[in-house]
Design brief:
By secondary structure, this protein is α/β, with parallel strands linked by helices. The chain contains eleven helices and eleven strands. It binds calcium ion.
Length: 314
Amino acid sequence: MTLPATTPKPRRIWLDTDIMIGMKDQTPREVDDAIALIMALQHPDQVELVGISTVTYANYGYEVTQKLLAWYNKTGRDIPVYRGSDTANDVGTENDATRALADALRTETLPILAIGPLTNVATVVQNHPELISQIEEVIVCAGRTPGLPFKPGLEKMAVGDYNFEMDPASFRILFDAGVKMVLSGYECSVYLFLGKTDIEFLNNANEPDKWVYDQLRPWQQFNELLFGVDGFVPWDTTPLGYLTHPDYFKYYHDIPVQINVRASDTDANSEKPYLEVSYDFHDTPWRATYAYKTLPGFEEIVIDDLRQASARNR
Ligand SMILES: [Ca+2]
């Protein structure tokens, strides 16, 4: 007897993002959250977005997420968006996002793809400890192996571990709560690079493509100014990749995690905390899965997903 073929169900996930693509400012703004969102929408067989919450630029993030969903959500499902914490340091203060995430976790267990500072997620964990066991895992773009400087491109300058340094207290809350943490940060993401030719197909008359291109291209040029190469690393796509394409990454499993305070490598004459992983750490109860390498095929997937999103819009 043969069993009827079944399609594997997508994993239902919550997305928390500090999306800022296109925000009007003195300089172009980071575009990786937008790329991760567009990618997630291309894999409805793998992931189903239950809800999206914004952090840091909560109001702008809300608007631009709605704009991108209107263009790229072809899943046939409505995906609600909630405004979260505007300052990355008001952990404990409830907002639309924390209430919605808590409600979702009361209904089902979920993994949380948190590609910004962890303020919203930590607020839920701190205020609703009964929901901690409902969080399957939190996948974040942060962390490093000890001594690894974050020097993209021609290594002209070091950058910080942004999501962590914006709100270290929230990371502490999640690790202390024993939440299963997946760190997919600089070390694995820096293998990815989108240059001008990689995105040129978006430079066309189609409104969504053109708008996205008009944000991506200045971001590439701004990166050349800072790091010496024309193009950018789509950082936040690797934590998404853990969910959609886990075989394209190499991981240290169950690796001890510590926050260590030392001289800052980004700010002279000051100290800062570093979120570090090492099997040599023995005095910490914190553990994580740590992505340390992205295999080359994943970059093609990022580009193919953008191509597919573009094609679906014609
Ligand atoms: Ca982000």
